[in-house]
Amino acid sequence: MNSELSSQQIKDIGEQGLLERLQRFCPPELIGDDAAVFKTAPGQSLVVTTDVLVDGVHFSNLTTSPEDAGWRAAAANLSDLAAMGASPLGITVGLGLPGEVRVSWVERLYQGMTECLQQYNTSIVGGDVVRSPVTTLAITAFGQVNPSQIIRRSAAVVGDAIVVTGVHGASRSGLELLLHPELGQNLKDAERTALIRAHQRPQPRLDVLPVICQVLASPCPMPIAGMDSSDGLADAIIQICRASSVGAVLECRQISMPAAFGHWLTKEQALEYALYGGEDFELVLCLPQKSALALVQYLGQGAAIVGNIIPGSIVLLHDEQKKFPDQVLNLSQGFQHFDD
Amino acid sequence: MNSELSSQQIKDIGEQGLLERLQRFCPPELIGDDAAVFKTAPGQSLVVTTDVLVDGVHFSNLTTSPEDAGWRAAAANLSDLAAMGASPLGITVGLGLPGEVRVSWVERLYQGMTECLQQYNTSIVGGDVVRSPVTTLAITAFGQVNPSQIIRRSAAVVGDAIVVTGVHGASRSGLELLLHPELGQNLKDAERTALIRAHQRPQPRLDVLPVICQVLASPCPMPIAGMDSSDGLADAIIQICRASSVGAVLECRQISMPAAFGHWLTKEQALEYALYGGEDFELVLCLPQKSALALVQYLGQGAAIVGNIIPGSIVLLHDEQKKFPDQVLNLSQGFQHFDD
User: Fold this and answer.
1) Which domain holds residue B16?
2) What is the ipTM, given to two decimal places?
3) Residues B265, B202: one domain?
């Protein structure tokens, strides 16, 4: 082995770089979506996704109660299942804990996870608890989906409308309000509470799955393109375009945001939160125009067509009102934990 | 909440105590075996198990190469599937890594995992990589089993013979030889190598599953009782007895051990390693005498009937040669990571 290569450290190549290096150990057909899918029986595929959360990196007692940390961890994994079109079967929870952690903290964490899971009639089905110098939470969620209803990043085609199932930016703005309570003095109490709630108790959009099938007619006539917006709306659209070898144009004013943003944020700030904030856990779907329109009408409440799939490889942000010049969106501005 | 209770820390109640407290968050029908099982389709159940391994607690660069750490982690999870009678579908790998870890270390870890998995035609199907102050490895394995072939701890009945699928104590003795190379001067090179190999590259006994079905006739006429011996032979028998509300008597001289132990260890030391060493990853099964005999004959190579299931709740170690007085085995002597 080349000595320069062998001394390379994780920090030199980052999370994304390491993941790319590790892909050669995985079957190629399982790479590239929010979760792995494989057929287990006729008419049934198993979907599996996993997340590791580390104290001080992904959650902190300073901004998050253990109940909320648990809810958010469960929600993120359920959202990865929703991103694939899969209904949850259960989650496993692996915990690494310093001996000094309070038992009540762990019970409250489990309480939060369970509250989130119960909304979707699912539960914690197994786990492991070990000693560790740092509190670590490893969740694996698994679900099932009819193979004809799998949502994939790679299925977008030119001409598709890009649908978001709800507003973006809420979770990020809620975090700002928690970190800086002096912000947003013009917000009504109910608005402030709702934004903070969006951060603390995000809702994975498993409820959208039966609606998609209904709108598209059953069995679904073509592969459904999409993913969730856990790493931000910009990231989701860029990932879909990259996997589908297409481009996209987004229209600024069509990106749905919380109404409260108008009482608080500048247009630039609002757009930054909506595009790059992350953790809104909405679905971003690419559908034929007619189906897209039907889905948006059915969902209401922040659902919108935010742009279109175009030829090429560029994701362009366009402002009809010409307040901003057109700009090309790219992943390096996105919400990449490892690089910060 | 009572203030004394709310200030209780993990170290006050230990791993086992915490797991018991957390069971109320899980559906009761999923608790008590090596992995969770649930029905996903007619004639098919999904089995899921998860493990968290922490640098310095469960593995160490001092005694274990990254390849071996990877192999052992994969083997432990495959063994949990074997313990339930399930064939593997795949594993997910969640990694927490300090930025200073070498990329080559991670690649070698994955190499070891993959080598183990390939033996059983399975693979890494997904994962997550995050920044963490301590190297942490969270593996979730999932597999499938025909519901009539599930192995459960709770199915042992009085009169069953207790079968081990291979020798015990090898892995523990291999670790001793790695830590103290000056030990075992009378061992032949091949013996030393084999014992160290048993520690570094343990084999989960997935190969035994088709044999069980063959020996018992298909479809299996009754629930199969058993688990793996990952936490030691004594632990496995005690766990089975507890879950099945029965007792057991073990016969010292019937417990199969590596032949090399005769050139090195005292009888007491050998027995201690075999009963409490752990990580041999054999299966411990409770079967009617005739089936037990047929299975042992089929397997050969260290497979043995080591005792019988009796009424009561006590696990008794008996020495036919009367070298030791009878002793009652209990879990507190077992290999419990958290309590040490």
Assistant:
1) 8-145
2) 0.85
3) yes
Per-residue pLDDT band at B309 (split at 50, 70, 90): very high
**Torsion (CA) A83, A71, A179, A181 in degrees, nearest 10:** 110
Q: What is the 3-state secondary structure (H, E, C) of B131-170?
A: ECCCCEEEEEEEEEECHHHCEEHHHCCCCCEEEECCCCCH
| Same-domain status, A202 and A286 | yes
Residue B1 lies in a domain: no
**How high is the pLDDT of residue A1?**
43
Mark whether B119 and B242 lie in a shared domain.
Answer: no
A6-10, A246-250, A268-272, B245-249: least confident range: A6-10
A59 and A74 belong to one structural domain? yes
What is the number of structural domains in chain B?
2
Model pLDDT, residue A194: 97
Record the tokens describing residue A164, joined without a space. Answer: 């978001």
User: Does B3 reside within a domain?
Assistant: no
**What angle is formed at CA B318 by the lines to CA B317 and CA B321, rounded to 5 degrees?**
140
Q: Which residue of B has its CA nearest to A54?
A: B132
Cβ–Cβ contact B94 with A under 8 A: yes
Q: Chain B within 8 Å of A313 (Cβ-Cβ)?
A: no
Q: pLDDT over 90 for what percent of chain A?
A: 70
> How much is the average pLDDT of A145-171?
95
Q: State pLDDT tens for residues A52-85.
A: 999 988 888 777 899 999 999 999 999 999 999 9
Tens-place pLDDT, residues A257-277: 999 999 899 888 999 999 999
Residues of A in contact with B102 (CB under 8 A): 6-10
Minimal CA separation from A27 to chain B, in Å:
7
Contact of B102 with chain A, judged by CB distance below 8 Å, is answered with yes
Host H or E run for residue B310: strand B304-310
Q: CA angle, A98 as apex, A97 and A100 as ends, to 5°?
A: 125
Question: What gap in Å lies between CA B47 and CA B38, rounded to an integer?
Answer: 7
User: Do the chains contact at B52 and A93, CB–CB below 8 Å?
Assistant: no
**Residue B33 belongs to domain with CATH number:** 3.30.1330.10
Q: What pLDDT is attached to residue B57?
A: 86
B266 and B304 within one domain: yes
Cβ distance A128 to B58 less than 8 Å, yes or no, reads no
Q: Do B107 and A337 touch (CB under 8 A)?
A: no
For an interface test with B, which of A15, A30, A48 has the most B Cβ atoms less than 10 Å from its Cβ?
Answer: A48
The number of beta carbons lying within 10 Å of the beta carbon of residue A253 is 13
Give the model's confidence band at B187: pLDDT under 50 very low, under 70 low, under 90 confident, else very high.
very high
Say whether residue B115 is in contact with chain A using an 8 A CB cutoff: no
Closest partner residue to A41 (CB to CB) among B26, B44, B99 is B44
CATH of residue A332's domain is 3.90.650.10
For residue A60, CA distances in Å to A66, A69, A119, A122, B285 come to 9, 8, 25, 26, 45
Q: Is there a single domain that holds both residue B170 and residue B225?
A: yes
A335 and A256 assigned to the same domain:
yes
